[in-house]
Amino acid sequence: AGMKFVLQYLGCFFAFFSAGFLIISTWTDCWMVNADDSLEVSTKCRGLWWECVTNVFDGIQTCDEYDSIYAEHSVKLVLTRAMMITADILSGLGFLFLVLGLDCVKFLPDEPLIKLRICLVSGVLLLLAGLPGITGSVWYAVDVYVERSSLLFHNVFLGIQYKFGWSCWLGMAGSLGCFLSGSLLTCCMYLFRETSSGRFHSAYSLRKGYSSAVTVVTNPHLLPSQTATSKMYAVDTRV
């Protein structure tokens, strides 16, 4: 039982921070940052939704939002948005299901099998959340690196060159955390399924035995009336 609690709480810990990292990564503005900080008087960051410029000397930040979501954008930007939003939704649902499946939460306290299945659903959702999250963040980072390397290889200097920033790193960390928490929860389900099944069947047997005992206790009250009725029918038959 103690090991089960440890696995559940570890899964909850990683699921909470992983979902938070994915959401913060999706809605922050530093997926790409200018690589030549020493030569610039401002730091330029690009996110999935806007681009921000921060002055190095006074720290003043100005941000420009991208065009409407229906406008024409690069394939990299559109697919990364879609994958990260999907990862946010799945990880958020996985964390909510996990909270309901924890043994310390008074939700279906007499149904251990159902709570374990809720933990399994949570683990599956977190594993699924990790797939689009890691795909979107790694693909975005690799694309930025390849673009920068190709420009350097061809000796093309555009004035501003980018590398992937901390928002992209958060997306990778959140995705890996989803994989870890999902693995812990699915293992928790399969390791303790038989134990919970035994407890469920033993509780069912106790309830069944209790109901049988009540029936046995109540039956003696019915026997005299049944005996009298049978004797009456026997007298009528003889007549």
UniProtKB/TrEMBL annotation:
Membrane topology: Multi-pass membrane protein
Taxonomy, superkingdom: Eukaryota
GO cellular component, one term: plasma membrane
GO MF, one annotated term: structural molecule activity
Keywords of this entry: Cell junction, Cell membrane, Ion transport, Magnesium, Membrane, Tight junction, Transmembrane, Transmembrane helix, Transport
Transmembrane segments: 7-27, 120-142, 169-192
Function as written in the Swiss-Prot or TrEMBL entry: Claudins function as major constituents of the tight junction complexes that regulate the permeability of epithelia. Forms paracellular channels: coassembles with CLDN19 into tight junction strands with cation-selective channels through the strands, conveying epithelial permeability in a process known as paracellular tight junction permeability. Involved in the maintenance of ion gradients along the nephron. In the thick ascending limb (TAL) of Henle's loop, facilitates sodium paracellular permeability from the interstitial compartment to the lumen, contributing to the lumen-positive transepithelial potential that drives paracellular magnesium and calcium reabsorption.
Name of the molecule in the record: Claudin
GN (gene name): Cldn16_1
